[in-house]
Write a structure and sequence with these properties.
This protein is α/β, with parallel strands linked by helices. The protein contains 38 helices and 18 strands.
Length: about 900
């Protein structure tokens, strides 16, 4: 039996050059029967590794290396129970709320069905015989299957140690610690270590040829270890029979207290919501029939509780004044989502299809992604933690990797290249426009010539390629959250930060395998801008504007958008988009939605034709007149995925569920499914009295657009936000610009300057900052005037601004002297005063700026006479006056 038991992946950050795919590829190349993945203290890659091993016909062995003081142990799961014990142990180790990582009590509690291997050299190289014997005996009381892992290093200490260990009464197994591909890859481990420690190791460094930390062939292995130690690997592999079956969905219990099933409660809420949306809907057969149909599908697929959970946290957000987006993705095609208030898009009004979201014939997890104003998104997540339990709600791990340019910089730095050389490398690499080193080399002549010009550059490029794409550190998914019915550490390995927040160790691509459903709770800055605008409208004009009830067909919205005056408006800001808008000239909401769908790589090529047809400069033609109703809103062009489904339903008699399977097959270029579907489509169309030629023409038409078509539900949802922001910009321009500029404080100067220019072009006066009237933010005064933010003055920190604003709120600064006297207790410096003067913040005191500066020194002498008592009362120092 051929393989390696102890392989470290790149998930041991900057300690291994092996990505999971590398390990599998080497296993296949060497015809391995098994591979053991034993990362130190983490299990980030274990499920990915298991799945890829199984797909490659290699037996996966899953383990965990644990540090116990000065010793190491490697634990391997025999079965699913053993795996769950590993999960518990890594979760304990990675709990940052505790000072100690792990102890003997933890090992005894989670020791079922585990093989324990002691990496002999790494554990015992500095230990006495008594210490070795004591440690081995302590583990014998915990683990039934205990082995010494014999490691090979070419040094005399190892030979003496191994001679003693081989005299002990304990089974031994060949157990080299593998962290690189081959002997040529070994020195890259040294490079990674230097990157981690921020050290320079030089170009002409000595290579370590004594460590067998790479994969070896059978002949080499036989030369390194006795037969019985190699054979013992087979014994351990036979003990290990871990099997992962895809787990059923473990949706959190909604905590329904209504005394009825989730199915009944959801239906009750849905029909109550339908009436709330529109009293006429409850007597409308189309709405009632659609709602009943959706509820039945949701129940059959087991998602009643899921909808209730989402409904609940959206309700929490709205009840607490947190802006929620109208929808995102295909979930906006659900009438249930709409009547529950999860989305704010009527799918019947916009001809959106539920089957694009949930499909009985294509069982997938539901995916309700939602946007919340970004400065309050964390409140929603914290609500979930409080409601369902901190151990049942988690963020999702992501991994930052050594991208191409960073790998170049790091490699150049550790071998000692200077800053100038490093910057030149990075600059020439960037010229290629690629994100991958091989492509950079191929595409950029200058970069290629530099690499080939000297040995040192060739070495940098070689090292960079070997470490490119390796995981470097963990981060947290910006939106993803999971909610489980049990403690998450019962299901999968988790980390816990020092605040007690759980982060699952598996990334989002592997959560469904363990029965977890990712919920995307996204923060969207534009919703924060809208919320700020609404509050300012109330403050200045005493109007309670409900942004969700504005007329989306208001002609002034489209006059403003068609002019290209779209800076600050969601999705419409880029120069390319502005050009498209001027070309298309949207006059109604569906035009805006279509523009968002078309302005993407691929469908952009149809923008000109779309525009010409809209303007009446090109004839609108249909392959068949029956397509008019479906394609007329988009001027005869297939823009949306939903149109493909509708055409398949109309022409071939497909159910919408089957039509969605056709769409997916077309977009993914699944030839086998497409061929079968084409036969069904043609025969269905003929049965509906269409000619075979017309049927084939229509099939080819939808096949062409399938990879370009966009999800209409998402496009409509985001077009609503665009229209809302355009409405605010047209009717409340000063408030709009103030709030947009506030969102960019500390951001891009060029973007901020663009807003300043557009203020001027829209007849908005950006008033100079004022110590009496300005705030920490830009503040609208009326429809045409904005006070400049004090915090945006370079050289003035936010703490000082808060003190100025707080002091001004107690009473207006009456003069320059009054300002200096009252601000003296806050240690206002001369430099800060002059910065405020230069910015115009003291102009209202009716002295020119030079005079204000000239008078400062005399006033400063006066200020030294003043101190403040604890009750904030001003006091003069008469001793100084007497002197």
């Amino acid at each position: 039996m051929n393989g390696e038991l102890c392989v470290k992946s790149g998930y041991n950050f900057l300690s291994s050059t092996l990505k999971i795919d590398d390990i599998i590829a080497i296993g296949k190349e060497h015809h391995f029967d098994f591979i053991g993945l034993i990362d130190k203290e983490v299990m980030y890659g274990s499920l990915e590794f298991y799945k890829k091993c199984m797909a490659s016909g290699i037996k996966p062995i899953i383990g965990l290396e644990i540090q116990l003081g000065d010793y190491l142990i490697c634990l391997i799961a025999k079965n699913k129970q053993g795996y769950h014990d590993l999960v518990k142990l890594t979760s304990i180790i990675n709990d940052k709320t505790k000072e100690t990582k792990i102890n003997e009590t933890d090992l005894k509690m989670y020791n079922k069905d585990l093989v324990c291997i002691i990496p002999a050299y790494r554990s015992f190289k500095d230990k006495t015989k008594e210490e070795i014997n004591s440690f081995i005996e302590s583990l014998k009381s915990i683990y039934q299957s205990l082995y010494l892992g014999m490691e090979f290093y070419e040094n005399d200490d190892l030979h003496r140690l191994n001679a003693y260990l081989r005299s002990l009464d304990i089974k031994r197994v060949a157990f080299n610690n593998i962290n690189c591909k081959d002997k040529f890859d070994r020195d890259n481990i040294e490079v990674l270590k230097a990157i981690d420690e921020n050290k320079i190791i030089g170009f002409n460094r000595s290579r370590d040829n004594l460590t067998y930390s790479h994969f070896t062939d059978n002949i080499t292995t036989k030369n390194l270890f006795p037969y019985e130690e190699i054979k013992c690997r087979e014994e351990i592999v036979n003990l290990c029979n871990l099997k992962f079956d895809k787990e059923p969905l473990k949706i959190a219990d909604y905590h329904n207290t209504a005394g009825v099933s989730d199915e009944v409660y959801l239906k009750k809420l849905a029909f109550k919501g339908l009436e709330k949306r529109n009293k006429d809907f409850v007597n409308n057969k189309q709405y009632v029939s659609r709602l009943n149909y959706e509820l039945s599908v949701i129940h059959k697929m087991g998602f009643d509780s899921y909808f209730l959970v989402v409904y609940d946290y959206v309700k929490f957000a709205k009840n607490n004044g947190i802006q929620v987006g109208p929808g995102r993705g295909s979930a906006a095609g659900s009438l249930v989502s709409y009547v529950l208030g999860i989305t704010n898009v009527d799918p019947i009004e916009y001809n959106l299809l539920f089957e694009r979201f949930l499909n009985e014939e294509r069982v997938t997890m539901p995916d309700i992604d939602l946007d919340f104003q970004d400065n309050r998104r964390d409140e929603v997540v914290e609500y979930l933690r409080e409601k369902y339990g901190h151990k049942k709600v988690a963020n999702i791990v992501t991994f930052s990797t050594l991208a191409a340019r960073q790998a170049l910089r790091d490699s150049a730095k550790v071998i000692g290249l200077g800053k100038k050389d490093i910057d030149t490398l990075a600059r020439l690499a960037s010229k290629s426009g690629s994100h991958y080193l091989d492509e950079m080399y191929e595409l950029s002549k200058d970069f290629r010539e530099l690499i080939d010009s000297e040995v040192k550059y060739k070495e940098v490029f070689r090292i960079a390629k070997s470490i490119e794409g390796l995981p470097r550190q963990t981060s947290v998914h910006a939106a993803g959250v999971v909610i489980a019915e049990n403690d998450l550490s019962e299901i999968l390995p988790v980390n816990q930060d020092r605040y007690g927040n759980i982060i699952v160790q598996y990334d989002m691509n592997h959560l469904e395998d363990v029965g977890l459903l990712k919920m995307d709770i996204l923060g969207l800055k534009n919703l924060t801008i809208i919320d700020d605008c609404l509050k300012e409208i109330k403050r200045i004009f005493d109007i309670d504007l409900n942004i969700n009830k504005i007329n989306l067909e208001d002609e002034n919205i489209y006059k403003l958008i068609s002019s290209g005056n779209t800076s600050g408006i969601f999705q419409l800001e880029s120069e390319g988009m502005k050009k498209t808008i001027k070309q298309v000239k949207p006059t109604q909401f569906i035009d805006l939605s279509s523009i968002l769908a078309l302005y993407r790589p691929g469908p952009r090529e149809f923008i000109e034709e779309f525009s010409l047809r809209k303007q009446g400069q090109m004839k609108i033609e249909y392959v068949d007149e029956s397509l008019r109703e479906i394609l007329e809103p988009t001027y005869g062009i297939i823009v949306y995925q939903e149109q493909i489904l509708q055409i398949a339903q109309l022409f071939a008699g497909f159910s919408l569920a089957k039509a969605d399977i056709l769409r997916r097959a077309m977009s993914k270029k699944n030839k086998e499914t497409m061929l079968k579907m084409e036969r069904d489509f043609i025969s269905g169309a003929i049965a509906n009295n269409y000619s075979e030629a017309t049927a084939r023409e229509v099939f080819n038409l939808i096949s062409k657009f399938a990879s370009y078509g966009f999800n209409k539900a998402h496009s409509v949802s985001y077009a609503i936000i665009s229209a809302q922001m355009a409405y605010l910009k047209y009717y409340y321009p000063s408030i709009f610009f103030a709030c947009v500029m506030n969102s960019f404080v500390g951001g891009s100067d060029s973007k901020f300057n663009e807003y300043v220019r557009e203020c001027k072009s829209n007849n908005i006066n950006l008033l100079l900052p004022s110590v009496n009237h300005s705030d920490i933010v830009f503040k609208a005064v009326d429809k045409h005037n904005i006070y400049y933010s004090l915090a945006h003055i370079k050289g003035i920190n936010s703490l000082l601004v808060r003190e100025i604003v707080r002091e001004a709120s107690k009473g207006k600064f009456e003069s320059y002297e009054d300002f200096l006297i009252r601000m003296s207790k806050y240690k206002l410096s001369k430099a800060q005063t002059f910065t405020l003067i230069d910015a115009g913040a003291l102009d209202e005191f009716n002295y020119n700026r030079a005079t204000l500066k000239h008078n400062y020194d005399n006033l400063e002498k006066y200020l030294k006479l003043i101190s403040y008592e604890e009750d904030n009362q001003m006091k003069f120092d008469f001793d100084i006056i007497a002197k």
